[in-house]
């Protein structure tokens, strides 16, 4: 699910899982599976996408921006395990990519990559995971995956985001509020809370 949602619509989804923070005991297996899923893919026709094919980004400039961000991250110490290739010609293709070892003191660490790039971080504890997750100027949404739901709830409660999910990347419906914190904005849309953003509420107080 992490790979599928990260590469959906060429990674151009505002609440997609941009950073994947993985516990040390499953990190190697997790990354190996991502690399397996990203190996052997080729550009496809978005109107009739076949198995093993990926879609283009919204424009050539968008693809070039992603390529420049990945190139800079590598120059700063990160590693590309699969993908990392800008398509030729005027097309807007960028190969789905797995990026690891982004230094936390690098400029790339604080940048959002709006494209099909899964940036993976290794951590050894819940506290380290939370520190890394919250060390971000953005705060739209976050997801926690665990076989221990109570533990996942505790971690999710401490994420500095507008929406949290457990054992799924995102849940969207007309009745569910949508919105973030920090530089991801303020206020909510959709759901009863979202409807409240479009009305002026008035206090009517009667003294007795």
TrEMBL record:
<dbReference type="InterPro" id="IPR016162">
    <property type="entry name" value="Ald_DH_N"/>
</dbReference>
<dbReference type="InterPro" id="IPR016163">
    <property type="entry name" value="Ald_DH_C"/>
</dbReference>
<dbReference type="InterPro" id="IPR016161">
    <property type="entry name" value="Ald_DH/histidinol_DH"/>
</dbReference>
<dbReference type="InterPro" id="IPR015590">
    <property type="entry name" value="Aldehyde_DH_dom"/>
</dbReference>
<protein>
    <submittedName>
        <fullName>Aldehyde dehydrogenase family protein</fullName>
    </submittedName>
</protein>
<dbReference type="GO" id="GO:0004777">
    <property type="term" value="F:succinate-semialdehyde dehydrogenase (NAD+) activity"/>
</dbReference>
<feature type="domain" description="Aldehyde dehydrogenase">
    <location>
        <begin position="7"/>
        <end position="200"/>
    </location>
</feature>
<dbReference type="Pfam" id="PF00171">
    <property type="entry name" value="Aldedh"/>
</dbReference>
<dbReference type="InterPro" id="IPR047110">
    <property type="entry name" value="GABD/Sad-like"/>
</dbReference>
<keyword id="KW-0560">Oxidoreductase</keyword>
């Amino acid at each position: 699910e992490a790979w599928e949602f990260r590469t959906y619509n060429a990674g151009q989804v505002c609440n997609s899982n941009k950073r994947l923070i993985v516990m040390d005991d499953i990190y190697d297996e997790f990354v190996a599976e991502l690399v397996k899923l990203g190996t052997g893919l080729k550009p496809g026709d978005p109107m009739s996408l076949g198995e093993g094919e990926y879609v283009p980004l919204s424009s050539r400039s968008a693809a070039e921006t992603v390529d420049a961000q990945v190139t800079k991250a590598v120059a700063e110490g990160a590693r590309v395990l699969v993908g990392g290739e800008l398509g030729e010609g005027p097309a807007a293709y960028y190969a789905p990519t797995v990026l690891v070892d982004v230094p936390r003191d690098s400029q790339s660490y604080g940048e959002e990559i709006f494209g099909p790039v899964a940036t993976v971080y290794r951590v050894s504890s819940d506290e380290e995971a939370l520190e890394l997750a919250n060390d971000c100027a953005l705060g739209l949404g976050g997801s926690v995956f665990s076989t221990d739901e109570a533990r996942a709830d505790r971690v999710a409660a401490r994420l500095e985001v507008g929406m949290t999910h457990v054992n799924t990347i995102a849940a969207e419906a007309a009745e569910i509020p949508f919105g973030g914190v920090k530089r991801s904005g303020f206020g909510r849309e959709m759901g009863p809370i979202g409807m409240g953003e479009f009305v002026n509420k008035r206090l009517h107080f009667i003294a007795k």
